[in-house]
Amino acid sequence: MYYIDPHIHMVSRTTDDYETLAKMGCVAVSEPAFWAGYDRGSVDGFRDYFEQLTAFEPKRAGWYGIQHFTWLCINAKEAENVALSREVIAMIPEFLDRPGVLGIGEIGLNKNTRNEATVFLEHIDLAVKTNEQILIHTPHLEDKYQGTRMILDMLTGDGRLQRDRVLVDHVEEHTVGLVLDQGFWAGMTLYPVSKCTPQRACDMVEIYGPERLLVNSAGDWGPSKPTAVPDFIMEMRKRGHAESLIRRVVYENPLKFFGQSRGFRFNSPLDA
Predict the structure, then answer these.
(1) Membrane-crossing residues (predicted)?
(2) Among 3.20.20.140, 3.40.50.450, 2.60.40.420, 1.10.8.60, what is the CATH number of 3-267?
(3) Does pTM top 0.90 for this prediction?
(4) According to the model, what pLDDT value does residue 272 have?
């Protein structure tokens, strides 16, 4: 089955991972900007990173027939530095018209601080003014519920937003309903040690249905599995779900959400 991974950090993966994903049926990946493993000290560091995301990673993915899309921002881990964040936000429009750029992300909260919230709101303002889609990171573990509520309060407080153009990622059982009830898209991230498992993601599909639900691997620097979406597909098949339902979650839903971005130009393998 063809699938799309809507949130995976391929700069932290080897080229062999692209080959493995292609063999498993992955036809496209969406890579949000995120933490480099250290806090970058200048706007030029982010400019170089955005160059990598928009110029080199699409080529590396293309070697294996995978289409690569990206999002741009300064992530929540580095948003405590408001002065630097504002420099980065001011620089982002230089890259928004590049092929494959889908919008602003992954923005959000890390420790739910005032500075993180300030930078989050300034990213939102940029996205609205440039008519970009938004991809959002919700905090980990004990900060998850509070951070998600804070994020939703900030989002719903901005009447300019089109909620169906916003993806709130890393949902779990205690936050997925909050996100869906407000009209946003929800992303389920499959991690081996935190966030969600394929089994729990299947449970959420069974409880809430497939509408506005995405599933991804994140595949970042820490313990993660870039082939987690095929694990979800297998779990859904074990439970006897129809192929049409599985395809909707892992292929059709990403197409529907990303298709709202002017930077999404997708060459469907089904048309080949």
Answers:
(1) none
(2) 3.20.20.140
(3) yes
(4) 62
